[in-house]
Structure formats: C-alpha cells, structure tokens
Amino acid sequence: MTDRLMLLDTASLYFRAFFGVPDSMKAPDGTPVNAVRGLMDFISRLVGEYDPTHLVCCWDDDWRPQWRVDLIPSYKAHRVVQAKPGSTPDVEEVPDPLETQIPIILSVLEAYGIAVVGHPEMEADDVIGTLATDAGMPVDIVTGDRDLFQLVDDEAEVRVLYVARGVSRHERVDNAWVRDKYSVDARQYADLATLRGDTSDGLPGVAGVGDKTAATLLNRFGTIDAVVAAASDPDSDMGPGPRGKIKQALDYLDVAPEVVAVRRDLDLGSPDLTRPRTPADPDAVVALDERWGLGSSAVRLVEALSGPH
C-alpha cells in the first residue's frame, strides 16, 4: 500500500455542506446539523474513493491574518461583519445556523480521531501549503478555492481535488488541467492571480489586466518579478499598453505576491496525520450521534475510515 496524504480545506467543505444540504436536517432538539452531516458525508465519500493513509482537516486559526491585511487592506474586507461598539473587529460573516455547528464539527472530528491542524495567525491554505511541501508521499488537496492551484506539482505528485462544482463532481487538477484552463503552469498560478486580481479575496489586481493578458505576460517573461523588470526597462519588448498598466500598479505588485503566496514553512509541530481506522473515542461517537442525530452519516464515516487500504 502506497502512502497517500489527503488534506481537507475544512471551511471550504463545511460552507459547501451548509449551503448544499437542506437545513431541514436537524438534531432532536432542533439544532441544524446540515453542515456537520454534510461534512461527514463528504469525508466518507472522499476517503472511500481515494483511500488515503493519512488524513488532515486543515483549519483556519485566522481566516484574515493581520499581516496580510497590513499589506493589502482590502484583503477579504468584504467578508467582515461591521463591528459593533465593544465587539471584536474583523469577525467573518458566517450565518448563525452555521456558526453553531462549528463546535459540533470539531467534537465529531476529535471523537473519530481525524487530525485537525491549524496555526496561529495563519489560514488553512498556509497549513495545507506546509503539509503538502516535501510530504514524502502523494498529496490530494481537497478544496473549492482556486488559490491552492499554486501548490499543484506533478513531479512531487501534489494535485488538487477541486470541488467547486460539488464534491460528487470534483475535478482532479494537475499541471495540464491548470495550463488548459489558464494558459500558465501551476507554479505561475499565484502570479496570474496577483496580476488578474480576485474579487472573492478582495485583491484588486492590476487595473485592465485579466486572465488573458496576465497569461500572455507570464508566458513571455516567466514571473511577476520579470514582468515588473520588463515594464521598467525601456528596451524590453513589452507593449505600451501592458507597460503602462504594470507601472501604474507597482506599489500593489510590491506587496501582493506575499499576500497571494501560500506559506510552505510553518512550524506545525509533529501531529499524527495517520488516518484513523477506528474512532478514537467510540463512546463519544455514540453520544454525539444520540445528541445531534447524526444517523447514517455517523455509520458511513465509521465504515469509510475502516475500509480498504
């Protein structure tokens, strides 16, 4: 059996579960559990299909790190709930029925023994980037977030299972997929996103530069640093249109690459990432099932985790 690491972008999956699974799915006391059960079913499906030997729920300890905001103040600003007097600022806008389910999700993951890994002042993306780098085994990153395409590496056998169209219709993203979709290699994707911008993350991009122009510049010059150097070099063969746009955006391009780049060097300690074959706390699994009405989702997850290797 070849070792294989599956890294789950947990928030991406539980948001998807919350909005995709009917809110009529409730616990006996009426508490919604659609995100809890949806996430459990997603994990069961993915483990059943890919049979990873190692499994991690990567966690947003900080969904909007201050160090990224300091560099680009608009970073994820549109997702911030307007702070009320005396309240904590920069709280992510999360529907109340989902907010109440997040502690339940953590309790379920703990009971089953599925590793949850986060890092102070870092996003799950940064945890994923660190665990996927030099993992020593093939890696499947499960996410609905395009940002993580930058981690795709055919040689290191790192790919993304992209769930934007749904977990059951996910796409396997390798370098050829990225190049076919965006006309750049995966290692250039972060630079493409920086140039193009990303409204979902509050990244303005370079005004007037979209996917096509960004890809053309990166295919010609290779990297953002080389693009900026060419724009500043009167003897380069960059056209006057792109040259002017790049020069107008030099302040942004000086800081944006650090914001967009996923960290790969965090000290995460030495967590046990081995996929549990049996629940870590069977009594807790039973108690959680009884309290929250997890039903067939609980059974499926036990069966999936104990299934083939």
From TrEMBL:
A Pfam match: 5_3_exonuc
Domain 5'-3' exonuclease: 3-276
InterPro entries registered for this protein in UniProt: 5-3_exonucl_a-hlix_arch_N, 5-3_exonuclease, 5-3_exonuclease_C_sf, DNA_polI_H3TH, FEN, HhH2, PIN-like_dom_sf
GO molecular function terms listed in the Swiss-Prot or TrEMBL record: exonuclease activity
Source domain of life: Bacteria
Keyword DNA-binding: yes
UniProtKB keywords: DNA-binding, Exonuclease, Hydrolase, Nuclease
Functional description taken from the UniProt entry: 5'-3' exonuclease acting preferentially on double-stranded DNA.
Protein name: 5'-3' exonuclease
Organism: Nocardioides potassii
